[in-house]
């Protein structure tokens, strides 16, 4: 009994692991679609790849809402990293969460200002969070694009760290998220 409890306490839980990898897949798709979709102008319609960006974006917002609630109610497994690495790791995870919340919110605000519905292809429509034609929300579209690069930089650091743990430090950090 205690052996099982101990093993459980050393890896992220099933739900946390599922949400982590679900968000990874959605983000990867969202970058590809965001970079390949056509340029957006005043009279552009949300069809084709742009519609996909809104569908994946809505899925991301819903997945992140669940993930944040889950994270606030479930502690990650205790780690045994040296203090400096522990601080850098916590700070990067915090910034990743911040970017994973702010970047989608700005996209959602920009979509709202264009009167574009953010839905899972009609299901689970998100309410607009900015007035149609809002200038501020329009500018948020540019900030969204810039902060997407910041998110990408954090992801590169994060994946680099995962590989550093696995192949240089040869510790169990990667296994904590693999299950
Ligand atoms: C972390 C998740 C997201 C990433 C990585 C991402 C990435 C991108 C990228 C790379 C662009 C193109 C920027 C450019 O060419 O300058 C873009 C534009 C856009 N995204 Fe996202 N996006 C995300 C989430 C969302 C969400 C959740 C929505 C709405 C529900 C959304 C709506 C939009 C809109 C409306 C634009 C056009 C902005 C404009 O050109 O004014 N995005 N996104
Ligand atoms: C879109 C890409 C990714 C994002 C946004 C992301 C985000 C995150 C976040 C926010 C955490 C903190 C979890 C928490 O404590 O609640 C985390 C943990 C973790 N991620 Fe990722 N991740 C991404 C890709 C990856 C990849 C590709 C790998 C593996 C190569 C990976 C391996 C890990 C590991 C091992 C942990 C646990 C670290 C620890 O135990 O301290 N992640 N990730």
From TrEMBL:
Its main location: membrane. It holds the Pfam family Ni_hydr_CYTB. It is a multi-pass membrane protein. One of its GO terms (molecular function) is heme binding. It is found in: Cell membrane. Residues 12-178 form the Cytochrome b561 bacterial/Ni-hydrogenase domain. Keywords: Cell membrane, Electron transport, Heme, Iron, Membrane, Metal-binding, Transmembrane, Transmembrane helix, Transport. Its cofactor is heme b. GO terms for cellular component: plasma membrane. One of its GO terms (biological process) is respiratory electron transport chain. The chain crosses the membrane at residues 18-37, 49-70, 91-111, 146-168. Belongs to the cytochrome b561 family. This is Cytochrome B. It comes from Trinickia dabaoshanensis. The lineage of its organism: Bacteria, Pseudomonadati, Pseudomonadota, Betaproteobacteria, Burkholderiales.
